[in-house]
Specification:
Layout: H1 10-27, H2 34-61, E1 70-75, E2 84-89, E3 94-102, E4 108-111, E5 114-117, E6 129-134, E7 137-143, E8 150-154
Antiparallel strand pairs: 1-2, 1-5, 2-3, 4-6, 6-7, 7-8
Length: 155
């Protein structure tokens, strides 16, 4: 009687590892990181909304000294995609040092280029909408001109 083999040989194990390696090399570049990019788009949209509200608050709180207001300017050519933005005091034309933010190249940010808020908190410019998208998620940031109310909706 002959004994039956109960284990794999080294050659068989090496072939399996080789095939798994080849499949991994082919599959990994094809993976869609849509969930990760969607989260990044969500984070950028929330950051922009927060800084738009901050810009409006600065315009209201400094109304006695600054009748021109504040603006959030998108950096890049309109209508985008933008690479960053900054908050500017319109009275002195100075950029607020901690009011800048860079946008990742995987995220598409398009729409209005300048959002100016007057001393009453109202939007004085003509740009009222901004779109942020990445992966399968997209967000629309809308500002109501008369009141300066900022709303972010997921599309």
């Amino acid at each position: 009687m002959s004994k039956q083999k109960r284990a794999f040989t080294v050659v068989e194990l090496l072939l399996i590892v080789l095939f798994l390696g080849i499949f991994a090399v082919i599959a990994v570049p094809r993976l869609q990181f849509a969930a990760l990019y969607g989260k990044q788009a969500d984070t950028v949209a929330r950051k922009i909304v927060t800084d738009l509200r901050r810009t409006r608050r600065l315009a209201i709180s400094d109304a006695a000294n600054n009748t021109d207001g504040f603006a959030l300017n998108m950096v890049g050519s309109a209508p985008g995609p933008y690479s960053s933005y900054e908050i500017v005091n319109l009275n002195t034309s100075t950029t607020i040092t901690n009011g800048t933010f860079s946008i990742d190249s995987a995220i598409s940010c398009t729409g209005g280029a300048t959002f100016q808020f007057g001393p009453l908190g109202n939007l004085t410019g003509s740009d009222t909408q901004l779109n942020v998208a990445a992966g399968e998620k997209s967000f629309t940031i809308t500002i109501i001109s008369a009141t300066g109310t900022i709303k972010c909706t997921e599309n």
